[in-house]
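Anyone else keep sequences and structure tokens together like this?

Example one:
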Amino acid sequence: MIQFFILMLFLVQTSSAQTDSILRVSVVEHLLSNKTAFLTKSDYGPGIMRFISLHDDENTGVESAKKFCADYGGSITELNYGGGRNIALVIGTHQYAFDPNAMFSDQGLAISLRRYSKIMPKASVASQIRDLGRILINEYETSTVMPLITLHNNTQGNFDITSYLNTGYLTGTADSVYISKKMDADDLIFVTEKRFYDHLKAKDINVVLQSYNAKEDGSLSVYAQKHQIPYINIEVQHGHFEENYRLITEVYEMLKIMLASQEVLTLSSNNTFSKSTVNRQENK
């Protein structure tokens, strides 16, 4: 049986030049065998930007989003489990680990557990992990109207926008890739809707459009696309705080424009994807 509890609910007054808001923080606890994971949702008041952070070692994005929400409102849902990229479990004499951004499908979770564990855990453990993903989505309160916005940070040399090209290790994930000559390759925005891609490309921002044929890896982006939830990931290198805040602001301005023009943000017949798994790189 899933065990999860509301640990706390409190109000904290915050203020800024942009807005005076009440910060409401709620924490949900979820037990994964010997590990306790916490889902912390910080609500800064009315705002169109609602963020989610899956990896407990990617703090640049979270800190940037907190500053933004203090200025403009919105919310941040964080998954906390003691640090690190992966969630590690010890059950008896066996150790298991998985990437929390792979727990949104049975297939993706199985791939991640095989990659990071010496043996596969019992089905009951995998079920607990999948439940964590469902609870997180429920706490975030996904919508088919407004985009699901995630925050990710990367490390120099391990990943950048070129990873999505035909020669990169993520080849096949992207439908289209636009690389700005003015930006660090580690800093980018990853989207599932062509209208987002076109807008950000016109702003000369590193941007990747996920392929409609992206493999099922259990990631939140694939989950969102399959459930017709608009998705945006803002990704920068660890420590690029100012750039992280700038990209958040660019997404905010884009959504304001679309809302002002009454453009529906859900998938539509005009929001088409190339069915080819071959990337298209576009340089300005």
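And example two:
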Amino acid sequence: MAFGSTFATESAYAQWKWRAWCQDVATGSRGATFVAVDHSGRFVGMVGAVSWEGTPIIMGMWTRPEWRNRGIGRKLLKRQLAWLDKYRRGRPVFLYVNPSQAGAERMYATMGFRFSGFEMPLGHDPPAVVRQMVRRPRSRLKPRRARGR
């Protein structure tokens, strides 16, 4: 279990709530969700981001099991980070990962995320935890050459 919710909880929400949430993240600058679909239109992956009190948080990173290890998660995350760079430039980006998701941890690390040392209970699945990872903004300044005399 990687998420802080269950299918039963999420599927109990009314369809209007899901539509409103999708509309909000599809049209605003507070959050965004990107999806990958196969040739038949079936969802194969997704990633979302929200701004929580001004802090960008990656959420809902998911790839259908039979589509994993094909670079889909990486492409989705790169697109999400580009969106965040446009709307949240210069801010650290956070995410939470379940330690049982070793593949996800490795992928996040290759994308510049590092463990912060903070972890918290998963909520619906005690004693499971999620660990926080952070990607610090890169400096936009180019190093200056020392002038020799």
